[in-house]
Each structure stands twice: as structure tokens, then as C-alpha cells.
Amino acid sequence: MLALRTPAEIWAGSARDVHPPLYYELLHFWMQLFGDSVLAVRSLSILAGVLIIPLCFFIVKRMFGAKPAILTSFFVALSPFLIRYSIEARMYGVLGIFTLLALYAVVIIVHNPKNNWVYLLYALSIAAGLYTHYFAALAVIAFWLYLLVLQKPHNWKFNKTIFLSLRWWLANLLALILFLPWLPNMIAQLRRAQGLGWLSKTTLWTYHDTIWQFFTFTDARKIASILYLIFPILIIVAVVIVIYNDKAKSKYSRLIASYSLIPIAIALLVSSYKPIFHERYFAFTVAGICMILAVAIVDISKKKTYITAILASLVILLELVGIRNVYAQSSHRMDVVVENLNKNFQQDDSIIAGELYVYFDGSYYNRTGQKMLLYTGKNKPNGYGESGLLYDKSVYLDSFDSVDSSRVWLIGKTNDQEYYKAIPDTWKLIEGYSAGYSEVRLYQVQ
């Protein structure tokens, strides 16, 4: 709905939302080329997800060679978490492209600090990442930490580090300058803190939950306790192995460890006080964790191919379980529900969505030509956050009693929702149809 607007309207609309505008701007032009079908809209995410695979290959090959690069490609290609967000119209795959390009730029900068063009690549990638999702800033912190503390090249002297070089700071300054036009909007969004109220504070076990989400896309607390505890710890063990075995001057192992875990660690720490953490915000780190596992497996195998094959197969088996979980959980099915409405709609019927996200999804699949209304009850949206798309539209319905139609379609979710309890006694339920956890009910107004 946002991407269908003009670029200027997308900029203004995003300012009322919780995210920066670049993904929606890109999607706008993408849709102009390919249309607004489900496949067309989601294909931008699909493309980003596919491009992450060769990008990871070239990064790891540059750092550690071909064997771990090939293994990384398999792990990334079969990552259930990356697959999940490669088939949804959101910005997480695109964010992964930008942060990985910045990672690649840092790799080249360490290899050749006088390559001016790669500093430009870094600056553009960071600026684009920040315009896509604010948590790109956590990747920047990871890069800074690596160059300031973790790299320590041979014959290290503080006054000669890349971190203190003029090129490095000009690149970071350029990224900031490019982001400045959006900065006032970001500050306004942060002051409103819109859209964070549903997040929970993190605990000591959130890290374990996150790793299991990354590799199996499931609530891991339902599995055996010993397995729940061991696998996330093995990720840390893999980090230690990779760093210990890295004798190169560049210490690239510390770079990918920092890129993979520092953003998560910062968010976990902050969220123990002020909740900001959700696994999907860190989809870009999954590629880094896949790199760590691949390099660690190659290091452990010590050129014994059968050991590499066994360990890699265990990781891939875990990911295949995750892929199954991704598709098993695809139970929204608003498309099926609204298609039933489209087939049985009659002229002058009213269509009402029981809640905000039902309104968004239902409106996309609505082909009747009738404007959908949004039931608000006593909780009318404030026009910011998700409701920023609707603040200038006359779609709010405060009471079902004000509906002036003989037949009403009410779209909602299954189970005993509050809006079903608010239905007037004069409305008679004619039929209902559900699929997944979406539902539509047809009422006759007497």
C-alpha cells in the first residue's frame, strides 16, 4: 500500500511509520516494472535472498578460501530463516545485501587500505542500510569494534590503524551526510516509540531461542532440554575455534564473529531494559553465522573430507527441518478467505475488517470494487506507525450500528475475537468461511 504511492508520498508516509523509506522506494519502482501481483511484490525479496548466496561465497573465499566458501553457500542457500524472509514483502533481505556489501568493503579495506573506491562502496552500503532498517547501525558498530580493538595486525601500532585513517573517517562521514535528510524523521519516530510495545524484555535464554529460530524456525523450548542448550553453545565454540585457528595478519575471523554476534549482543543487552529485540531484525547476521560454521567445520576436519561431509550434513539436516517448519507455519490464508468473498459479493454489500492488519491484507486481495472499512471500536488508531497509511483516508468505523447495508462481510481472525462480541443483535449470521487463521463472516442486517 505504501509502495504504490509516489516517491515523495512514500517518504512522507514512512516518516509516520516506524521504518525508513528505502525498501518501499525500491519496491515502488520494482512494481512499476513487474506489477503488484503477489509474485511481483515478493520477487524483490526473492532476488535479494538469492543474491546473498554468491555474495557470501565471494566474501568467504576472499577471507578463507574456496572450500569454506562453498560450504557457506550451501548453509546460506538452505537457511530457513533467510528463506522465510526471502518470500515476504519486507526489507530484511535487502538489508542483508547492504550490510554484506559493507562487510565485503571492510575486507577489501583491510587488504588494501589505499583503495579509495572501496571506501565509497562502504559509505554507500552503510547509508543504504540505514535507509532500509535502523539496525544497520549495529553492523557499523561491529565494523568499528573490529578495526579498533579486534584486528591488531602484525607489528600493530595505534597511530597507523585503519580506524584512525582519514579515508575511513571520510567514508563514515559520507554515510552520515547521506543519511542526514532522514535524520529528523528518525528522531521523531524514536520519540514516539511507535510499534515497539508488543516486544518483550530479553532473558538469559533469548540467545538460545534466537539461534534455534535461525536454524529451525521453531520454538526450541519444545525440544529436549539438552539439545536446546547445546547447539547455541556450539555456535560460540565455533567462534572460538575459528578465531584460535586464524593466524593471518588480517584476523578476518574476528570480523565475521563481530558482524554476526555483536549486533545481537547489543540488542539483547538493551532489550533487558527497553525491549527492541526481535529475531527478524537480525536476519542479516544469519549469513555471518553460516560463515562461522563453515570455516569452523573446515578447520576441525583438517582436510579429512569425510569429517567435513558429516558435520556439514548435520547442519544441513537441521536447516531442512527448519525449511519444513517455515512452510508448515504458512497458515495465514487471507487470499483464500477474501477470494470466497469476491465470488459471493453482491452490489451494495458492506465490507469491514475487524482489525488493522486484517484491513491491510484484506484490502490487497479485495477485488469487489467496494471500499473496505476498518472497525476501530473505542481504539481509533492515532495515524502513526502502521495506521500512518490510513490517517488521511475515511475508512474508520467506530460502531457497527452505523453500518447502512442489508448485508455485511466481516473479515477477521478465527477464534473468539473482541470484534465478534461487538456485533449488534440485529445482525444475523448467514455463513462463515475460514482458512488458516483468517475468517470471513457474512451477516444479514435485520
Plain-language structure description:
By secondary structure, the chain is α/β, with parallel strands linked by helices. It has two domains: 7-328, no CATH class; 334-445, no CATH class. It is 59% helix and 8% strand. The protein has 18 helices and six strands. The protein has helices at 7-15, 22-34, 38-64, 66-77, 80-84, 92-111, 116-132, 136-150, 166-179, 183-192, 206-216, 225-245, 252-271, 283-301, 305-328, 334-344, 356-365, 418-421; strands at residues 350-353, 372-375, 396-397, 407-413, 427-435, 438-445. The chain has a six-stranded mixed β-sheet. Helix 3 packs parallel to helix 6 (92-111). The protein is globular and about 80 Å long.
CA-CA gap between termini: 35 Å
How many strand units?
6
User: β content, as a range?
Assistant: 5-15%
Element-by-element helix/strand order:
HHHHHHHHHHHHHHHHEHEEEHEE
Using only C-alpha atoms, the radius of gyration works out to: 25 Å
The tally of helices reads: 18
| Approximate shape | globular
* Low-pLDDT residue spans: none
Structural class: alpha/beta
Sheet with the most strands?
Answer: 6 strands, mixed
Helix content: 55-70%
**Largest beta sheet: strand ordering:** 3-2-1-4-6-5
The number of distinct structural domains comes to 2
